[in-house]
Amino acid sequence: MSDNNRLLVSAHKLDQDMVRGNAFMLLKTQFQKTVGLYLCLVLLLFLICASIVYGYTDTSWKVALEAFTDFNGSKEHLILQSVRLPRSLIAACIGASLAISGVLMQTLTKNPLASPEIFGINAGAGLAVVISVTIFSAGSTQAYTWVSFLGAAIAAIGVYIVGSFGREGLTPLKLTLAGSVVAVLFSSITQGFLVISETTLDQVLFWLAGSVQGRKLDTLTAVLPYLAVGWVISLLLASKLNLLSMGDDVAKGLGLKVGFIKLTAASCVILLAGGAVAIAGPVGFIGIVIPHITRAIIGIDHRWIIPYSAMLGGILLLAADILARYVIMPQEVPVGVMTAIIGTPFFIHIARKGFNAN
Amino acid sequence: MDSAIKTEALTLSYGEHNIIDELDLAIPKGEITVFIGSNGCGKSTLLRSIARLLKPKSGSVLLNGEAIAKLPTKEVARKMSILPQSPAAPEGLTVMQLVKQGRYPYQSWLKQWSEEDEQKVEAALAATGLVELKDRPVDTLSGGQRQRAWIAMTLAQDTEFLLLDEPTTYLDMTHQIEILDLLFDLNEKENRTIIMVLHDLNLACRYAHHIVALKNKKVCAQGKPESIVNRSLVKEVFQMACEVTVDPLFGTPLCIPHGKGRYIVKESL
């Protein structure tokens, strides 16, 4: 090979390298990122309103506005206030919470396919709900809230403890293994209950599919403080998560209290994903997909990832929920199914990308 | 001997199995100290423990006379930096972002990014020759550049003590020398105390002022390379027969292993 050729090859390689590094970020400067975040906020607010306006009961933006400014007791106004409003706000809050908890899980496990589910959150909540229905004959969605929150927390704490056994403390591999085992165990017990008791199956089937429909505003206000605490702590953790993503040894060497930060992050996952499953049942894929989309847009700095993923999570869930009303109208698709339909191609894409990289 | 890092009756273990047993060691200040020993002798474990990455089973590590386990970890990070063995940066992290993390020990809720932080980062990039590459993602750099970027991060930490666990592993000869020259300069010009684990005995002899040879959970010899490295030490530490001669360039001990290989008889010596 002549020197000239060699130079060309190395220039080409350099070019590829540059592209590879930069293709990771859509928005590069501080200014672009700030503007982007505001745009996301505007889109989120727009979708919150759109979610109130659009659906089976035909309304218009004007009627929707009147329902809140000049309430007249009509059927439309009632639906807008007591059904659409809670549904819209719940979708926004849950989407944001699931997305943040997904970011936290992926950083904790250093596994790009991690989601709150790895912590056994949904499996724990599902089992708790099924037990409460079968044994204690709990009936309402309201009753499910605290039961599932408790179930999610117990499962996650269990996974954390099992994953922390041994000398190294909580490692990504042990956490992933412990989580998978606990999730499978809980799901199979849940399946067992459902096979034995058909009435339970009927009652919880809709809950198990995950939905933001038919929840009251009270449910949200009851859980919102937990979600809010989770949001704030996650934002405060952001710069420390940057350190954590460089590996435990490096982070410890820089003076980060690694064990404490991991425990705090894990507690946030319980608050956020546990709170989300308590309100809406298991809604999948937001926790996996959103962190990846976010990183593609703004890179790997958690100080941006956390707020951006919160916005995008809310946006995706609201959009999925609005779509869910139109796919098989007048019936509705559970939003958990919608997010799965949107999320699965992404999931495969990420898995393939990771596989090719190795 | 002036020393600011000491171990007292330090015992390290993995489970029941002790790696280092009741070790009393003093690291000379302002010098380059290199830990040598065979694979699995505990030299990396000892370094990690000195850097508080690994809790001792018993005994303690003293930094300027104080037990390191009792000091706030951020305070320790302002005095001592550690570069672990083959660290991995998240994909897409730029050199600049990596080096900036070195200032973490100086930040708090009240004290955010300052002029001094900026200067230390610039100085670290300059010392490692990475100014031109500062916006490149670390994972697109060559092995030697990548290692320099990590060293730049520890330099930005602006510490008196610099600990490195096999900083030349996976590097070719050119880059090994490049990294060790950089560390040598840091010691010479800025008087930083450097403690590292190296596999290459000859390079250890060339760059270290002080060598600590580990064997059977203990220190089997320590001192200047030229006073302690000889046939019997190498035999004892590495279970390897060798000749020790003098490096024709540097005058430091040069170890030539026995074993098999092609013999070419020289016609005239």
UniProtKB/TrEMBL annotation, chain B:
Its main location: membrane. One of its GO terms (molecular function) is ATP hydrolysis activity. SMART domains: AAA. It comes from the Bacteria. InterPro entries: AAA+_ATPase (IPR003593), ABC_transporter-like_ATP-bd (IPR003439), ABC_transporter-like_CS (IPR017871), P-loop_NTPase (IPR027417), Siderophore_ABC-ATPase (IPR051535). SUPFAM superfamilies: P-loop containing nucleoside triphosphate hydrolases (SSF52540). The keyword ATP-binding applies. Keywords: ATP-binding, Cell membrane, Ion transport, Iron, Iron transport, Membrane, Nucleotide-binding, Transport. It is found in: Cell membrane. It is a peripheral membrane protein. GO terms for biological process: iron ion transport. Residues 5-241 form the ABC transporter domain. One of its GO terms (cellular component) is plasma membrane. Coiled coil: none annotated. This is ABC transporter ATP-binding protein. It comes from Peribacillus cavernae.
